[in-house]
Specification:
flavoprotein, Acyl-CoA_Oxase/DH_mid-dom, about 425 residues, 9 strands, two-stranded antiparallel ribbon, oxidoreductase, alpha+beta, single chain, AcylCo_DH/oxidase_C, 7-stranded mixed sheet, FAD, 12 helices
């Protein structure tokens, strides 16, 4: 009986891990890491070979989701659909992401159980119009922020990893041509959606996303891309990359299918967000077809960046809320000099400030998202929300460690991991100085 490639790969891994000689020679850990990396690459090749984004001849007309109708008042209450999504993701964050976060951080990858549980929710479908198999009926930046916030409460790195395909589907839904939407969006509604992510960041100090050093030039067949991108989520497994590059001096985004491409990739584990499986990707004279350019004349790169900034704000808010929810009971239970340390005025004031800043970040982000959802200008509001979240979420992470004292410095408590993850808000995507 012949085995398929995946079965053969699993058989090899089981045979290696079951050999008792590895323990005696002290080779189990390095060989298991090598086996994992090798089979991961093999699985990626097999998966990419099995999925093909076919160019369609009779594609559906381009679908643009309409904006929501603006209300007379700024209403912060959630509708029934939003409340259902929040409740479902809150359970996922509490029961699945939070328990798996520490091991995922140590191993630097997304656990299979988490991936399976998250796939059952079908997150990318909330970004895809119903014409292409999704459930989206209108623009929903507020819902996107809510999703990011709830997932990040469980773990920021896992949330980023799970939201990467959602962000790509959302961008194609918002700006893709009819052919691009018909070609890619139905795949995001399958039981196993494609791994896709954005490639925006570059390894440049004070990087400005609106002025990418990655370039694209027109050729007879399409475009030729040169440059390097950093912090590409799960780049080693990606089937679709949305890459920003300067085209004739103007920033644009290109859809790149990675199947069959020999891209130069390297793992870039960092101080935090280790489970996001970040990589760097280099493009050396990469030729892509003309239809790889996302959208047409209605594409707005600044809006593209602003929408991404709101998602990152949601991640920062969710993680900051996690810190706050953890330190309050800790400080109420921790005794010093015969009373809870929360009775100390300096401790109480620090916790109060954390709560104030978390709600401030939430209100400013929701306001920007609400304006985007109703089709109004939101660039100013997005910039303000981004600046506040960059500064205050980092401060909240620092204060969370401080409130736990020595416990804040050890892995027994998750606050040290949240601190490391929140540092990314002040350094990635240009950070607080951009």
């Amino acid at each position: 009986m012949t085995r398929d490639p995946i079965g053969l790969a699993l058989s090899i891994m089981n045979r290696i891990s079951g050999n008792p000689l590895l323990d005696r020679l002290g080779l189990r850990s390095p060989l298991e890491r090598t086996a994992y990396q090798g089979t991961r690459t093999g699985f990626r090749t097999i998966a990419l070979a099995g999925r093909e984004f076919k160019r369609v001849r009779n594609w559906l007309p381009r679908k643009r989701l309409p904006p929501a109708a603006p209300g007379d008042l700024f209403d912060l209450s959630l509708d029934d659909d939003q409340q259902m999504i929040v409740d479902s993701l809150k359970r996922l964050a509490r029961d699945v992401l939070r328990p798996a976060a520490q091991e995922a951080d140590e191993q630097g990858r997304l656990p299979g159980a988490v991936k399976h549980e998250a796939a059952a929710l079908g997150l990318p479908m909330y970004a895809v119009p119903s014409e292409f198999g999704g459930v989206a009926e209108q623009q929903s930046p507020v819902t996107s922020v809510l999703i990011a916030e709830q997932l990040a409460w469980g773990d920021m790195a896992l949330a980023i990893r799970l939201l990467a395909p959602f962000s790509v589907a959302q961008a194609i839904s918002c700006w893709g041509t009819g052919e691009q939407q018909s070609r890619y969006l139905p795949a995001f509604c399958e039981d196993t959606p494609p791994m896709a992510c954005l490639a925006i960041d570059e390894p440049t100090p004070l990087f400005d996303p609106t002025q990418p050093s990655t370039t694209a030039i027109e050729t007879d067949q399409g475009y030729r891309i040169n440059g390097e991108k950093s912090f590409v989520i799960a780049g080693a497994e990606c089937e679709l990359l949305l890459v920003s590059a300067a085209l004739n001096g103007t920033p644009r985004v290109f859809i790149i299918e990675t199947a069959g491409l020999n891209l130069a990739m390297a793992d870039t584990p960092g101080m935090g967000l280790r489970a996001a499986e970040a990589t760097s990707v280099r493009f050396d004279n990469l030729d892509v077809p003309a239809d790889a350019l996302l959208g047409d004349d209605d594409f707005c790169f600044q809006t593209f960046i602003d929408r991404g900034a709101l998602m990152r704000c949601g991640l920062a808010i969710g993680t900051s809320q996690a810190v706050l929810d953890y330190v309050i009971p800790y400080c109420n239970d921790r005794q010093a000099f015969g009373e809870p340390i929360s009775h100390r005025q300096s401790v109480a004031f620090m916790i109060s400030n954390m709560a104030i800043e978390t709600d401030s970040m939430r209100m400013l982000t929701w306001r920007a998202a609400s304006r985007a959802e109703t089709g109004r200008s939101c660039h100013r509001e997005s910039c303000l929300a981004r600046l506040l979240c960059n500064e205050k979420s980092m401060e909240i992470g620092t204060n969370g460690v401080q409130l736990l004292g020595g416990h804040g410095f050890v892995k027994e408590h998750p606050v040290e991991r949240w601190y490391r993850d929140l540092r990314s808000t002040a350094t990635h995507h240009g950070g607080v100085h951009a």
